[in-house]
Design goal:
Number of helices of chain B: 8
Distance between the termini of chain B: 69 Å
Strand content of chain A: under 5%
Structural class of chain B: alpha+beta
Order of helices and strands of chain B: HEHHEEHEEHEHHH
Largest sheet of chain A: 2 strands, antiparallel
Strand content of chain B: 15-25%
Number of helices of chain A: 14
Number of strands of chain A: 2
Largest interface: A-B, 17 and 19 residues
Strand order of the largest sheet of chain A: 1-2
Distance between the termini of chain A: 92 Å
Oligomer: heterodimer
Radius of gyration of chain A: 23 Å
Chain lengths: 391, 230
């Protein structure tokens, strides 16, 4: 029964495809998978927007949206109708083709990432051997879409926002990749499916998730920081800092194209949360051995939702960074930490089983964290300014 | 250590998040169409015309002096004088506005019309839900829609209305006293005249003439100065 529920969608797919001639089956199966990915993550997008608006409201002691439907649960629907019926304005001097292509490309690239993400046992669209690489390649192409949007709008705020976005995303791409490299070192594979398999066994009922190791925890934190920056979310939302540059790269977008950017941003968030879940939180595996009967896809989506909640919580808490703080943090703290973490992971690998490697690796990570935050982020103490005037 | 402040902040927002579900005091939002907070007494939105008694057309205090029309900075008041007259609150015959229109969409709620009105006829309302789907006729309020009773004035600005009524009562009392004095003087003059019938002396008639003339001239003037004081 548990197995039935776990493989429910796989069975449904096989059953549906079974009606077709054998030559058509692979293609139709892929189309069905893609359609279900788009539908599921589209639905999650609506849910996340609602959660974000309600959650942020509560954090600021407000009600949040509560007018449309019971407790405002139909608010995303109202938002969708609004976006779809709004006028689509293209600036007269803009590059209309690129202006049109940018949101489309963004949405395509963020959805491409889900092709390799295992959302449950046997539930992955394409089981690539180098799926991690594929995911990062797709993640990096969103930068192109963002720059296209900023460039084609012919608006200084758009361009500034795009420049900020590209600078930020390239800076944080490095620690994002490096923090996942430790997982590759441990599993010896670039395949996300194998990474989940490596974490999906239990000792005394507790899982072997990578986040529960010193190097894994450090990498998890760095990944969390870098993923927040990658998705342009607070406190790293400089590209769309509304108090400074209106809306950044999508200033000149309206109507459905704006909605596409919004969708792309949130789906990108799900993608990165799904990747983080797969790398550090055991993907679709249950948090305790006795909970293994719960279908694997439920665990995956629960973890992703938790990750989204964390993003929302951070957004409700932290103010926006300044550009120099952002860069300092990336290059002077996160990057050295991730590089050091590679060494820690190697030490862990070669010290063999036992308590010593736990002590050594934890000590190195903690000491490095404290030292790096003291040294790397040290600010020059500048006294009160003194002026000397010509006499 | 790095991250300590972030953790503290996260705890704070988590407390707000959870607290907003448990303690109603945290949520300061007034859910407007259903919930309303009472208007403060000093609130002002848009002018209205005060009338005394029950019939608005008869009790309108406005005498169509057009001072407000002239003073209105955005020129949103339009007044047409009447050709006939009707008695005001003291019983004196006054002209009244045949037309009195104010354009809601032009009015800037500056209250200057209220400041300049010598007759306490125009006051500020607290009614703010003036939106309408008819943007021409719906926003141009004529005197039937502007007229509101003195009792209504009491409900929205009690202190101010009491002051105004006290002033008007005082005014009325003054006018009545003057009328009474005039009547007495007239009676005295009649008596003096009757007395003077027999011994007609020049100084006595001059003394008697003084109080007789004074009230007849001063009564209309008294009304004017009283208005000016307000």
């Amino acid at each position: 029964m548990a197995e039935r529920a776990d493989q429910l969608f796989v069975f449904i797919l096989h059953w549906l495809v079974g009606f077709l001639p054998a030559t058509w089956r692979p293609a139709v199966a892929v189309v069905l998978c893609v359609a279900s990915i788009i539908v599921v993550f589209g639905f999650l997008f609506a849910l996340a927007v609602l959660m974000e608006r309600k959650g942020l409201g509560r954090m600021q002691n407000r009600y949040g949206p509560n007018r449309v439907g019971v407790f405002g649960i139909l608010q995303p629907l109202a938002d969708a109708v609004k976006s779809l019926t709004k006028e689509d304005i293209v600036p007269f001097r803009s590059d209309a083709v690129v202006h049109f292509l940018a949101p489309v490309l963004l949405v395509i690239t963020v959805f491409m990432g889900f092709a390799v993400l295992p959302v449950g046992r046997n539930m992955v669209l394409v089981n690539l051997d180098s799926s991690l690489l594929f995911f990062f390649a797709m993640g990096a192409s969103t930068e192109l879409a963002i720059f296209m949007a900023g460039w084609s709008s012919r608006n200084k705020y758009s361009l500034l926002g795009a420049m900020r976005a590209v600078a930020q995303m390239i800076s944080y791409e490095v620690p994002l990749l490096l923090s996942s490299v430790v997982i590759v070192m441990m599993t010896g594979s670039l395949s996300l499916v194998k990474m989940v398999d490596a974490q999906n066994h239990y000792t005394w009922g507790l899982p072997h998730w990578f986040v529960f190791t010193p190097w894994g925890f450090a990498a998890f934190l760095m990944f969390l920081i870098a993923s927040t920056a990658e998705t342009n979310r607070t406190p790293f939302d400089l590209p769309e800092g509304e108090s400074e540059i209106i809306a950044g790269y999508f200033t000149e977008y309206s109507g459905f194209k704006f909605a596409l950017f919004f969708l792309g941003e949130y789906v990108g968030m799900f993608g990165i949360a799904g990747l983080g879940t797969t790398l550090f939180l055991g993907g679709w595996s249950a948090p305790f051995a006795f909970l293994s009967w719960v279908p694997s896809w439920i665990w995956f989506f629960a973890k992703v939702e938790l990750w989204i909640c964390l993003f929302i919580w951070l957004r409700g808490t932290l103010p926006r960074l300044r550009q120099d703080q952002l860069m300092n943090f990336a290059w002077k703290f996160v990057l050295p930490m991730t590089i050091l973490n590679l060494v820690v992971a190697a030490v862990w690998r070669f010290m063999g089983e036992g308590l010593p490697r736990w002590l050594v690796c934890s000590a190195v990570v903690v000491i490095a964290y404290v030292a790096m935050s003291r040294v790397g982020l040290r600010r020059k103490q500048i006294g009160p300014r003194s002026y000397r005037y010509a006499e | 250590m790095l991250g300590e402040g972030i953790l503290k902040g996260l705890v704070e927002t988590a407390r707000n998040f959870a607290g907003s579900y448990f303690s109603k005091d945290r949520l300061t939002t007034v859910e407007y169409p259903e919930q309303r907070i009472p208007q403060v007494e000093a609130a002002r939105v848009f002018p209205f015309l005060v009338y005394d008694g029950t019939d608005w057309a008869a009790g309108l205090r406005c005498v169509a002096c057009q001072i407000c029309e002239k003073e209105c900075p955005p020129k949103c008041i339009y007044i047409e004088k009447s050709t006939d007259k009707k008695p005001d609150y003291v019983g004196k015959m006054q002209i009244y506005p045949a037309r009195f229109d104010i354009d809601v969409s032009v009015c800037m709620s500056c209250q200057i019309c209220v400041e300049v009105c010598p007759f306490e006829a125009i006051k500020m309302d607290t009614e703010f839900e003036l939106a309408t789907d008819d943007r021409f006729a719906g926003l141009l309020l004529d005197k039937s829609r502007l007229a509101k009773s003195n009792e209504y004035y009491y409900t929205i600005h009690p202190t101010e209305a009491a002051e105004v009524d006290a002033r008007l009562a005082e005014e009325k009392a003054k006018v009545e006293a003057k009328a009474k004095a005039a009547a007495e003087a007239a009676a005295a003059k009649a008596a003096a005249k009757a007395a003077a019938e027999a011994p007609a002396t020049a100084p006595a008639s001059a003394d008697a003439a003084q109080p007789v003339q004074a009230p007849s001239v001063k009564t209309p003037e008294g009304g004017k100065t009283a208005g000016g004081e307000q």
